[in-house]
């Protein structure tokens, strides 16, 4: 039997250290910990898929919380069912889920439902905050902040008069497509 760990956070800004340390404290070696920074709503998670290809019958996967496996009940149950079919044990914190027993199924469904509920509440709060901002702030703009300020755009326009789109992109450290978006119809390189 080999013990593996899986750690996941949803954004690049979040830190995996706490989860990894907790998994190590359960006796999992660093080499057997699969960690990634990707949302739990996606089922195509590279490190999770690698782990699924490595585990075999009798192995154990340790995660710190059930929502690390996914943010919807459907994804969580699918992952657990695949592991159960492989005869792989899943331990969440200090709880092991045995889907072959009625109690194990019930606990997994309850905890998975709470993970999905938590995710839905986060999304609802974010949508409410955005709606409020749209209504009350005339300068509110969704999405990433623009990389190019109006002053930079003017400088880029001047530079672009005597240079190609590719050269302009390199000079201003942006993609050629962005140059085209800011400058209008792209010039031939």
Automatic annotation (TrEMBL):
Recorded superkingdom: Bacteria
Record's keyword terms, sorted: DNA integration, DNA recombination, DNA-binding
One GO biological process term: DNA integration
Residue ranges with Polar residues bias: 167-178
GO MF, one example: DNA binding
The keyword Transport is annotated on this UniProt entry: no
SMART domains, alphabetized: Resolvase (SM00857)
Region (Disordered): 167-189
Recorded family membership: Belongs to the site-specific recombinase resolvase family.
Protein name per UniProt: Resolvase/invertase-type recombinase catalytic domain-containing protein
Organism per entry: Limosilactobacillus reuteri (Lactobacillus reuteri)
Lineage start: Bacteria, Bacillati, Bacillota, Bacilli, Lactobacillales
């Amino acid at each position: 039997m080999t013990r593996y760990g899986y750690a996941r956070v949803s954004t690049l800004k979040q830190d995996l250290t706490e989860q990894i340390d907790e998994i190590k404290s359960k006796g999992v070696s660093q080499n057997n910990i699969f960690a990634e920074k990707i949302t739990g709503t996606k089922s195509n998670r590279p490190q999770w898929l690698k782990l699924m290809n490595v585990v075999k019958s009798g192995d154990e996967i340790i995660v710190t919380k059930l929502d690390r496996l996914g943010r919807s009940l459907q994804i969580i149950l699918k992952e657990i069912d695949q592991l159960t079919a492989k005869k792989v044990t899943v331990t969440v914190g200090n709880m092991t889920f045995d889907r072959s027993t009625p109690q194990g199924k019930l606990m997994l469904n309850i905890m998975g439902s709470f993970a999905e509920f938590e995710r839905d509440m986060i999304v609802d709060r974010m949508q409410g905050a955005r709606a409020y901002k749209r209504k009350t702030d005339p300068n509110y703009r969704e999405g990433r902040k623009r990389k190019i300020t109006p002053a930079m755009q003017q400088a880029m326009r001047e530079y672009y008069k005597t240079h190609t789109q590719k050269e302009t992109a390199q000079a201003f450290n942006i993609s050629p497509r962005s140059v085209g978006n800011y400058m209008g119809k792209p010039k031939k390189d």
